[in-house]
Amino acid sequence: MAELKTKENRASVKKFLVGIDDDRRRKDCLAVLEIMRKVTGAEPRMWGSSIVGFGAYHYEYDSGREGEWFLTGFSPRKQNLTLYVMSGFSQYAALLDKLGKFKTGKACLYVNKLEDVDVRVLKRLIERSVAHMKKGA
Question: Are 41 and 130 in contact (CB under 8 A)?
Fold first, then answer.
């Protein structure tokens, strides 16, 4: 079984975020950093070379594959700011209706810029996802 390449590491979150060239993307990331820090009560950690994650949970699939992953996190991609909502989105339709302009993947929320979304709603979405993941779901 292949080993997961993206792992928690000791790289500097601050150095990573300060190194973001785009001013708006850097400011958005710093704002999301504070939201996720408050919601999780955890300090940010680098996962791989480009993901900032908070907290961790253990997963185990029916296939026998298991590991550790972050409860929530984000990554400043070139095209968008990617936020990781590990519980997925199926139970959050009411919040998503109020969130603003975004796209989703299985557990990824893609936002072009933070001003496109209601930050209060975003915070509630992250809070609910983190609570869900902490319950072991």
Answer: no
